[in-house]
Amino acid sequence: MSGKILTGIILVVALFAQTGKGNEHPQPPPKKFANSFILDPAKNQSQFHNQFDNDEIVHVPGYSQRNNYSWNNRDTPDTLAYDLEWGAYFYMLPDDVMMTVFQMPANGIIKGVNVPVYRWGTGEQLTVALYATTYPFGSDTTMYDQSFVNGTGWLAGYDDNNDGHMELEGSTYNAAAGVCGGSAMIPNAQDPLGNEQSITNPPEVPSMGLIWPDGFTAATLNPVDNPGIDQGGGDNWIHTVDFGSEPELEQGDWVGIAVRYSGTGGDGSDPGIGFQYAAGTSDPWKSMKFYADSCNGTGGENGWYIRHYVFNFQLAVELTGDRGPQFFQVPSLPTTLSTDSLRVITGITDDNPSGGDAGVDHAQFIYQLDSLTAPADTIAMVLFDGDNEYGLWETYVPGQEPGHWIYWKLRAVDVNGNNTETETLSYTIFPPPTNNDLIFNNQELVYGNLLYSSYLYLYWGGEGFDIWDASYGPMTDELLQNYDVLIELTGGGGPIYINDDEVEEWWNGEKTYIVTGDEWLGARFWWDVYLDGIALEILGLTLKYVDINYTTSGDQAGISRLIPDSVGVTRDLYEFLADSLFLNYDPNYETGNSNWLDGFDIVDGYTVDMTAYSGVLDSNGNVADDAEIYNVMVHGQAGNGGKSAFLAFDPIGLNTTPVYYWVGASSYYSMIGDLPYNASPLVSVYEALQGIVSVEDEAEIPKSFSLKNNYPNPFNPVTNIHYELYKNMEVKITIYDLLGRKVKHLVNAHQTAGEKTVQWNGTNDLGQPVSAGVYFYKVETPEKQITKKMAVLK
């Protein structure tokens, strides 16, 4: 935020991190403000906006990839891999290192390592190695606190010359603070690669903790021999025996797959290499990244950072010892409104690679109420299908009162006493509505804090809203029936869930539906042009113009120029801009997201509130000479009385130039500056739709589709056909003669709800008058077909 706006003001944002799900229910604290982060106007604004550092992520619309984790010639097949919905892609630069860690489930031999590459840039090479990592433990042998992650997860590096710039190798670890004014080092941090130096190590492979390759040749990948997934490639399995020996590890050991960018990066035009990634969970965090460039890390320094993202690397292991039971089916326990008891089913298998007895002895459901430090209750699970070597187990968890959080995990113990636990998960009993409107935060948490879904997007203080987060699961009919207003936030990366069926069932003349996000359309239609479903019938959108503004590089990374309408719902914003300010959509700066802005055409009767220029701004902040203008914000009311608005952008990604104002968080700025609280188009349209109580020039809303008799009948020369639509739908009206032959197509279109009239002047499709006699008119909708008779006189 600009110093001019915030001069003399220090806002302790951590105060707000003490409320809501983040700390009130002790899951890991909000990552954005885990260390009582203070917003100081003397510091660069990017410390507030981009501490989460999503700049390294490139979302490929519609992309989802699961690998087939397989490996041949193993007595007991077991690929150590995280089974997640992988996205694309997370990138790295020359000399960066990415590492994903696994804990050995039993004694075993590492037979292979796999590093799927999503895409290659230019001049690139990767070097792959395995380490007996010290992570996730600090130098005091205790596990790192899970609140240390991303911007606060700085593990630093070696600093032999004491200049504050961290190196990947050396002899003096963490001797000096960073030089960029960024993160504070995690207490008792140590080299995550390991604390013992190997005797030999190949070039470009750090020696601390190295267990493979243990020869003189590095294991490398390149784009010619190992094409990326976007080039038709896939898994890149490397046999460990090809580069030394096959490492043998013991049960409980932690092993890290470290991938170093040892290439040159070409001419710099496309230096980044991208990997599959997914948002992970703590307990502990699974991946780290070493940032080679000074001040380039996620918290502002270079060196190692613990990340909440998991990088998709895998190990092929031949197990030689007994291991604990394996969960092949872990239940999903979403947040619910129900206070009834909950049936829980899990699948468990147990083998014994050492050749001894195998089988599950017992399984348990373990839970705590409201706190991870609360006493734990344990419920026995019962085998109800299969056997103790491969079976399904169940139990019933007591129902809880609204507002409680339930932290739970599963434990299974085999006949030899080996036990396995799932990670700790949570769900809540959603409080009953209290006449509030509903915000569906259908995106990643904004700056790691759920409260900002109301504080920043709508009103600072967050009053008047219930918030359903995507981490609770998709919306349900049971949830929606309690609300008249739904505001769906889908950010810059697209919605996590698509709830079209539930919204369509819910929306009627008493409901208001507001949608924001520049990939809401992309998630449904991708490169399609013609729109249907709720995009057409509720939001009033007919045609889509894909990615009218898109780029992820350069000084003006994806910045769009928007134009609010001078009247109507965006009038206050238009007047604030006046002749001195320009309105920009800059999600990369404000939230770290990319810009995939779509344009659209609208149904008659809906109102355009904002338009945007195609293309991105140049380095001087100017619009291209050949830029076209597209609609990017609309609101309206359908014939059934239902109200809606669509913003094809993330509202908190809006700011101004040449003087900076954070328009997207206007209610916050209204407290500390002269920006109107309702300058945000989301705030303005939300308030405007609340004030619309009727549809102008509309008769009473029909309850169902109906077809009235034409009038006059018989007729000469014109008759009127009347019908009623209770919602927006496709309508087809055709005239037939007595022999069933088509005479004329009168209507074939998508129409809005309400009373309709169409005329027939007694001519065929060629414009020629028909003969006197009896004719039929047939009206077809997706729900019903009705045919009636009429007579033409001459």
Write structural notes for this entry.
- The protein contains 13 helices and 44 strands.
- The protein is globular.
- By secondary structure, the chain is mainly beta.
- It folds into five domains: 3-49, no CATH class; 78-321, no CATH class; 326-428, Immunoglobulin-like (Sandwich); 437-690, Rossmann fold (3-Layer(aba) Sandwich); 706-792, Immunoglobulin-like (Sandwich).
- The strands form nine sheets. The protein has a ten-stranded mixed beta sheet with strand order 27-26-28-29-36-35-34-31-32-37. Strands 3, 5, 6, 7, 8, 11, 13 and 14 form an eight-stranded antiparallel beta sheet that branches. Strands 1, 4, 9, 10 and 16 form a five-stranded antiparallel beta sheet that branches.
Can you tag this structure with a few keywords?
disordered N terminus, globular, Immunoglobulin-like, ten-stranded mixed beta sheet, mainly beta, eight-stranded antiparallel beta sheet, 13 helices
SSE blueprint and pairings:
Elements: H1 3-6, H2 14-17, H3 21-24, H4 46-49, E1 77-80, E2 87-92, E3 97-103, E4 108-114, E5 126-131, E6 154-156, E7 210-212, E8 219-221, E9 237-239, E10 248-249, E11 254-261, E12 273-279, E13 287-291, E14 303-307, E15 309-311, E16 314-319, E17 326-329, E18 342-349, E19 360-369, E20 377-380, E21 382-387, E22 390-397, E23 405-414, E24 419-421, E25 425-428, E26 437-441, H5 452-455, E27 465-469, H6 477-480, E28 485-489, H7 500-506, E29 512-516, H8 520-525, H9 534-537, E30 541-549, E31 560-564, H10 571-577, E32 582-585, H11 587-590, E33 597-602, E34 607-613, E35 629-637, E36 643-647, E37 654-657, H12 666-672, H13 681-691, E38 706-707, E39 719-725, E40 729-736, E41 742-751, E42 754-760, E43 773-780, E44 785-792
Parallel strand pairs: 26-27, 26-28, 28-29, 29-36
Antiparallel strand pairs: 1-16, 2-12, 3-11, 3-13, 4-9, 4-10, 4-16, 5-7, 5-8, 5-11, 6-14, 12-15, 13-14, 17-18, 18-22, 19-20, 19-23, 21-22, 23-24, 23-25, 30-33, 31-32, 31-34, 32-37, 34-35, 35-36, 38-39, 39-42, 40-41, 40-43, 43-44
